[in-house]
Amino acid sequence: MKESELRRCQIHDWYPRFKPHTIKTLFHPLSDSFIRYLLGEPDPHSSADPPRFLLPRPSSGLDPLPALPPASIPPPLSPVNSDSDSDDDAPSFPDLEAAVTRSIADLGGAVLPKLNWSAPKDATWISADGSLRCTSFSEIALLLRSSDSIAHDLSQALASCSDASPDPSSLPFYLALRKWYPSLRPEMEFRCFVRGCRLIAISQREVTTFYPVLPDRKDEILPLIERFFHEVVREGFGSENYTIDVYLTSDGRVKIVDFNPWGAFTLPLMFEWEELDEQGFGAQGVEIRVVEGRQGVRPGLKTAVPYDYLDTGEGSGWDQFLKRADEEIRKQAEDIGNDSKGG
Ligand SMILES: Nc1ncnc2c1ncn2[C@@H]1O[C@H](COP(=O)(O)OP(=O)(O)OP(=O)(O)O)[C@@H](O)[C@H]1O
Questions:
Q1: Are both 31 and 158 inside the same structural domain?
Q2: Are residues 214 and 291 in the same domain?
Q3: Ligand 1 centroid to 257 CA: how many Å?
Q4: Ligand 1 centroid from CA 132, angstroms
Q5: Where is the composition biased (Pro residues) (predicted)?
Q6: Is 33 in contact with 26 (CB distance < 8 Å)?
Q7: What is the average pLDDT across 295-301?
Q8: How many angstroms separate the alpha carbon of residue 262 from the centre of ligand 1?
Q9: pLDDT at 308 over 80
Q10: Residue 172 shares a structural domain with residue 28
């Protein structure tokens, strides 16, 4: 993937061109100090290491801490601002907070936050209602700071590009606040695959569930998306290969949710990248795939927990935890052995 292709998928890049066809969004440039705060990096002007779940200090006292997550989900590793010491160390970003508070009000009181590419979908376990809905700056900060996807946007985004510029710090970061829609229907979201500027495939976006309505309606959905692609997207996007997520409203209009690069971290959902990459694929026209029955659902492409909860492979957080536990047990066994020899 080329860096220019990845850059075109940044929401602040594509939004101005597709504004009438997408969700209303307001943007805030992020300062280096806020980016350091999101990454949990120490402030060079302070000797304290900020704990990972430290929230920014509200500038007015009017922005309450979000409710603690329900008891059924794992608690944060360290308490949220539980003591006055950590509160003293908490940074504050009064200008950004004031601007974000104004934008939330302008967008109707609730927003979905994202950075240049990603929303903090893997961090919803820490939010009060388990969703990406935010009504305050501190809720946004908590989600962003708890998300591996956001950390990836901030520190690794260019790593998968074949021609990445030597200075990734030249990348400006934005907080995008999108008007919150409480009743988006997951079965009406689709990922469209565009190769060589041609729409070749469409997949149901939420593939862990069977929606009985979809197999019956897919032949009616395909031409709606195809027409939208030809009339609105094809000339306007600029890349040859990419994916676009769209939402179909109940009156048959198509709205853009997001653009993603071809391949790399983008999930192929009901397809495989190998088949989408085959030269002949799509020659017979656009292929649409949906989950056709309860047996056809795809296993948990879960993104609502940190990667460490999912990744149990060599070198993962779990792997290291288990190795440390083994080591601890081995030491205890040795100590017991030594004690009993001594006794
Ligand atoms: N404004 C909104 N209101 C309510 N839900 C939304 C809104 N925008 C997006 N969503 C939901 O959140 C999901 C994630 O949003 P989005 O695609 O922007 O995040 P992302 O991190 O770029 O995801 P991906 O990389 O998987 O495409 C969407 O698939 C959609 O279901």
A1: yes
A2: yes
A3: 7
A4: 9
A5: 66-78
A6: no
A7: 73
A8: 17
A9: no
A10: yes
> Is the ipTM above a cut-off of 0.90?
yes
C-alpha dist (Å) from residue 242 to 69, 233, 316: 36, 11, 30
Angle, to 10 degrees, between the axis of helix 137-145 and the axis of helix 94-106?
110
- Domain containing residue 322: 311-342
Residue 17 lies in a domain: no
- From ligand 1's centre to the CA of 26, what distance in Å? 15
DSSP 269: T
Structural tokens at position 139: 């809720």
Q: Pick from 15, 114, 257 the residue to mutate for probing ligand 1's pocket: most ligand atoms within 8 Å of its CB.
A: 257
Q: For residue 114, how far is its CA from the centre of ligand 1 (angstroms)?
A: 9
Specify whether 277 is located in the same domain as 214: yes
C-alpha to C-alpha distance for 46 and 34, rounded to whole angstroms: 14
Q: Mean pLDDT across the stretch 205-220?
A: 96
Per residue in 225-284, pLDDT tens? 999 999 999 999 999 999 999 999 999 999 999 999 999 889 999 999 999 999 999 999
pLDDT above 90 covers what percent of the chain? Answer: 64
Other C-beta atoms lying within 10 Å of the C-beta of residue 90: 17
Point out the ligand 1 atom lying closest to the alpha carbon of residue 118.
21
Angle among Cα 99, 150, 319 to the nearest 5 degrees reads: 150
* Strand duo 254-261 + 287-289: pairing: unpaired
Q: Is 189 in the pocket of ligand 1 (CB under 6 A)?
A: yes
Q: Is 139 in the pocket of ligand 1 (CB under 6 A)?
A: no
Ligand 1 atom with the shortest distance to the CA of 149: 21
147-168 tens-digit pLDDT: 999 999 999 888 888 887 767 6
Q: Is the CB of 41 under 6 A from ligand 1?
A: no
**Phi, psi (rounded to 5 degrees) for 190:** -135, 145
Arithmetic mean of pLDDT, 172-198? 97
Q: Is the CB of 259 within 6 Å of ligand 1?
A: no
Q: Does residue 192 line the site of ligand 1, with CB under 6 A? A: no
Q: Residue 65: pLDDT above 70?
A: no
Residue 316 CA, ligand 1 centroid: distance in Å: 27
